[in-house]
Amino acid sequence: MLKGYGRSFFQYCYRSGEKMLEKLGKVSGSKPHLPYLEIHLADHCNLNCKGCSHFSPIAEKRFAYLNDYNRDLKQLQRLFSTVRDIMLMGGEPLLNPQMELFLLATRSCFPKANIRIVTNGILLPQMSKTFWNVCRSCSVDIGITIYPPLKEKESALVQLVKSNGVKVITRSVTSFHAFYNRKGDTDQKAAFKRCRDRWYTPILREGKIYICPKPATLRYFNEKYDLEIPTTGFVDIYTPGLSGWDVRDRLDEASSACCYCTLGWDVIPVFSWETSKPVLQDWDALSNQA
After folding, report:
1. Cα–Cα distance list, 13 to 64, 193, 194, 211, 267 (Å)
2. Average pLDDT over residues 5-21
3. Half-sphere exposure for 110 (CA within 13 Å, toward CB)
4. What domains sit in the chain, N to C, each tagged with a CATH number?
5. Could you count the other beta carbons within 10 Å of the beta carbon of residue 163?
6. pTM across the whole model
């Protein structure tokens, strides 16, 4: 790194370059790339985390449908030159009994993408030889999120993945933040800006790309606790005349769902990892304030 220049300077240069390329691309009519995309292969999970941002402890048992998945990926091919990073997650993605077919479909549609399975690791010792063979042949990485109950197994899980010739990374998670502002009075632009300053996590679900996982999975939260939080904040990828540039633009717009998110707060309530009960208070920021 050049003396006198911090990371923020290089981030600024990168973003400026991205914006310039975007303008040139729109003028020339070329297709953009999508930097990052999350996809649920299962909504439910085998580890119940209090405050799970994808609402897995209260989600129904639901797997992605392979035919719909293939159709959506082919539509993304029409909209984008590539998707740089594709995260296959949930819930717990390894619960999906057709895991290998989803990996093959993803690699077939996006041969240059970085594909990663994001898992809690519990099921890795039970995965078949076919699974490991497909991971290698499709150049799929394994990302293990290490929660406190599995901390002692981290080394063994990492060694297992490596012994099967697959790249592995780990991320330790010991706390969650309470996202839900029951008053619904968060400044949505402030919440969205703070979110985008930290993360860029659009998620594909049933023919729509959402700005983040919450509006994509809020249905479970609303149904469980009889709430009416807006599930807006998505673009239908089958909209006639839609371009990839339109999708990129729409993913940079705040949603009314952001009014219920604590990311716009000056202080975000954080709590240590616990098992979900599950009750509304598991996600409620006002109940988790110190």
Report:
1. 38, 19, 20, 24, 30
2. 48
3. 31
4. 32-282 (3.20.20.70)
5. 9
6. 0.89
